[in-house]
Amino acid sequence: MGVVTIDARDKTPIYAQLERGLRAAIATGRLNPGDQLPTVRQLAVELRVNANTVARVYSELERAGVLETRRGVGSFISAAGRAEARPAGEKARRLRAFVTKVLAEADAAGFTLEEVVAELDSHR
């Protein structure tokens, strides 16, 4: 696979390094929706980590909607994988920054908050 590495000198727990690495590979497009991941055992051997650690990360990513597991076939990046792969809280932070920018531009252009909200509502 080669898209995820573990640094034994890093004080971050291995499962956190693995989860962060997989999320980053998906978010940056090194892994794409539909791509199959190595089996738990294959990745554990490749990274020289406990298979239970890999299984835990795969399970958490599946619950988060990043991965989907097809029984007897393997684990794959889900169709919604890229959007879901961003670290928790990043989406909310990016939305706040976007809204702040929009409101500042609206104010500079002379629009009220009510006018902006009404226009957004008209696009539902």
Characteristic terms for this protein:
single chain; about 120 residues; mainly alpha; Arc Repressor Mutant, subunit A; 2 domains; two-stranded antiparallel ribbon; elongated
What does this 3D model show about the protein?
The model has no long low-confidence stretch (mean pLDDT 87). The termini are far apart. By secondary structure, this protein is mainly α. Strands 1-2 form a two-stranded antiparallel ribbon. A hairpin with a 3-residue loop joins β1 and β2. The longest helix has 19 residues, at 90-108. Helix content is 55%, strand content 6%. The radius of gyration is 20 Å and the shape is elongated. The chain contains six helices and two strands. The chain has two domains: 14-85, Orthogonal Bundle (Arc Repressor Mutant, subunit A); 90-121, no CATH class.
- Which structural class do you get from the secondary structure elements? mainly alpha
Q: Give the overall shape, derived from the CA principal axes.
A: elongated
Structure annotation, total helices:
6
Spatial ordering of strands, largest sheet: 1-2
In terms of DSSP E residues, the strand content is 5-15%
Order of helices and strands: HHHEEHHH
Please mark out the parts with pLDDT under 50 across 5 or more consecutive residues, or reply none: none
Helix proportion range: 40-55%
Mean pLDDT: 87
CATH class of the largest domain: Mainly Alpha
Per the CATH scheme, the topology name of the largest domain is Arc Repressor Mutant, subunit A
Distance between the termini: 42 Å
* CATH structural architecture of the largest domain: Orthogonal Bundle
Largest sheet: 2 strands, antiparallel
Kindly report the name of the CATH homologous superfamily of the largest domain: Winged helix-like DNA-binding domain superfamily/Winged helix DNA-binding domain
The whole-angstrom Rg is 20 Å
**How many domains, in number, for the residues?**
2
Tally the beta strands.
Answer: 2
